[in-house]
Design brief:
alpha/beta, Cobalt-precorrin-4 Transmethylase, domain 1, 5-stranded parallel β-sheet, 4-stranded parallel β-sheet
Length: 329
């Protein structure tokens, strides 16, 4: 008589629960963020450490820590930069007063402003050009205090731009008499911005807008991608830092698009396992300033407790690249 086939050991470990994971695509780094980081890395290679960076080069703490280990020093004011050290301006852009001060001090400076943010700067200058009746007062759709907004508003004299943050403000704003134009921060919610623009166009039919959308391709694509998975997810984890506008907008878009819940996660080590209680399908995306290795680290951490069934839903592909600024090209 053959020996019986042994069953699982009594009291042995139970199999890990299964977790379905939907990855949004595209996600993570955009071309402007990639370029800004390369500016700092190339400056370190050419000039040696330290290289100073005014403000976080991009809003992601993992990226900032990695560059600090290589010799980057992050400051908030040019007064903190020694006269003999190179300085990089962040991807968010800076007011005109900042490069003017750098030139006055004869500092070696490198501008890592995203070209799509620079495009908005040029739009603002174009609307303001001419002076008198020829110029337009500008309504900027954006978030107060964000460095991109500070940089854009700082391209023009005080009072030339009025900030509009919400649909309610779009309904109530009272710009000065005369011609009007609008511009937008590049990392806003696509849907919220469309609502604000519709309100402004209804109130001010002659208002001039950008010839091409100010919200950048990466913000648009990442929001479309998270919409494609949100309705099937009990929870969406958005990898990104709390001060990252595009990451915060992804969290908001995920919840509005039907996710049971959406949580911002700065990095894998910050994961609170309790948020996964009762979750059968987990969505994962990453803001435009979050590197893909943070996604890989999160998946690796999840495999310690779950059997993952991973599916990527990609709404489009991206092949945008930006050249380094002239001094480094």
């Amino acid at each position: 008589m053959p020996d019986p086939i042994p069953g699982p050991p009594v009291g042995g470990p139970s199999p890990s629960p299964r977790l379905r994971v939907l990855l949004a695509g595209p996600r993570g780094f955009c071309a402007g963020v990639d370029r800004a980081i390369r500016v700092v890395e190339e400056a370190l290679r050419r000039y040696g450490a330290p290289v100073y960076v005014r403000h976080e080069i991009v809003h992601n703490q993992a990226v900032v820590r990695r560059l600090e280990r290589q010799g980057a020093v992050f400051v908030e004011d040019l007064a903190e930069v020694p006269d003999d050290a190179p300085v990089v301006f962040s991807a968010h852009g800076v007011p005109k007063s900042v490069p003017a001060e750098a030139r006055r001090r004869k500092l070696l400076y490198l501008d890592a402003t995203c070209p799509l943010v620079s495009k908005v700067h040029r739009e603002a200058e174009r609307h303001h050009a001419g002076g008198g009746a020829a110029s337009r007062h500008i309504l900027m759709l954006g978030h107060a205090g964000h460095p991109e907004v500070i940089g854009t508003m700082g391209q023009l004299p005080p009072g030339a731009i009025t900030l509009v943050e919400t649909a309610e403000q779009a309904r109530s704003v009272q710009p000065p008499p005369g011609r009007l134009a609008f511009i937008t921060q590049t990392t806003l919610s696509v849907d919220d911005t469309a609502e604000m623009v519709a309100i402004l166009r209804q109130r001010f039919p002659a208002i001039e807008g950008p010839k091409r959308e100010d919200i950048c391709y990466a913000t648009t694509n990442r929001q479309a991608a998270v919409k494609a998975i949100a309705g099937d997810c009990d929870l969406v984890l958005v990898i990104g830092s709390a001060n990252s506008s595009n990451s915060q907008r992804l969290r908001e878009v995920a919840e509005r698009a039907g996710a049971g819940r959406a949580v911002l996660l700065p990095e894998a080590d910050a994961l609170d396992w309790d948020v996964l209680d009762g979750v059968g399908t987990l969505g994962i995306t990453a803001g435009a300033s979050a590197p893909e290795d943070l996604v890989e680290e999160l998946l690796g951490r999840l495999t310690t407790r779950y059997r993952l069934a991973i599916e990527e839903r990609r709404v489009t592909s991206e092949d945008v690249t930006f050249r380094l600024p002239a001094p480094l090209a």
